[in-house]
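Final report, closing paragraph on structural work. Over the funding period we assembled a curated collection of sequence-structure pairs, and we close with a single example.
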Amino acid sequence: MENLLTVNVVTYNHAEYIKECLDSLLSQETNFGYIIRIFDDCSTDGTTEICQQYEEKYPDKVFLFPNSVNENLHNCIRSYENIKTKYYMYIEGDDYCCDNSKFQKQIDILEAHPEYVFCAHNTKISGGNLGREISKRQGEYEPLDEGVLIEKNFISPHISSKIVRTECIKIDKDNPKPYLFDATQTMIQLMQGKAYHIGKTMTVYRVSLKGCFSSLDYLHKIKRFKSELLNFNEYTKGKYEPLVIKLIAAQTMFYIMSECKANKGHEKIFYNLRNVNSRKALKRYLFPLFVTDILNLPRDIIRLIKEYYISKQVKN
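Its predicted structure, as stored:
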């Protein structure tokens, strides 16, 4: 059978999860061929050895590309290089598919509709503070119904849910980050045409707290998201500036509200109160950071917008 799909598995120290990921990919029922490329970023926990076993067991389907040193960003970039098939999929080694018909359903839609640049679906979060289906709609996490996605009504499904036309890969060698960040990658793809969303959950995003993003606390997540969106705004020369600002504000509120939910009952705060020895420490625990952040949110958003326009004027 002709190989229509390349599945890129990007992994680092996922020994606990990588088997479930690879088994879920290998169990897909299709009437076309597909290959799995594993990009291991010099894992130290046995992940590399597990991947080698899969490559030996499935020599015509699984191909391992290990790094001799940890490259982080470049390991992601190289997964988008040298794809020979018509379509590709990107998944991290701790995530997995939960529907054996995922590949077939998505490829059938893309083959029937050449105007669609990708096909996506709902994704379930496993672990962390949330356990529900997700798909980002202007910063909110919620499942989406069946339907067409367009640029003007921006929605960013989880990256593992998408199967994309290889011809739509747009990576700027001088500024590759916009294509590597989930939300901005979707923006770039929707600039090239419509997409289709299946209203069904077929992958699981595992919040293992080992990823470069999931391991961050909520304040650093806000900072990272803001940085990536402003970088994208510069990359597109301000074409989507109103949407960028709206997404930053909405996602900031989402992370803060998630932190409030995670601290429900304030068990950790009250535990720490028993161990404080100064008024300064007492004040810190009586008024935790996330409460202060909520009160300061309007001010911070205004400051964010001002900082952006000031930096823009300086560059000009």
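Residues 137-141, 265-291 have pLDDT under 50 and may be disordered. The CA atoms of residues 23 and 187 lie 31 Å apart. We thank the funder for supporting this effort.
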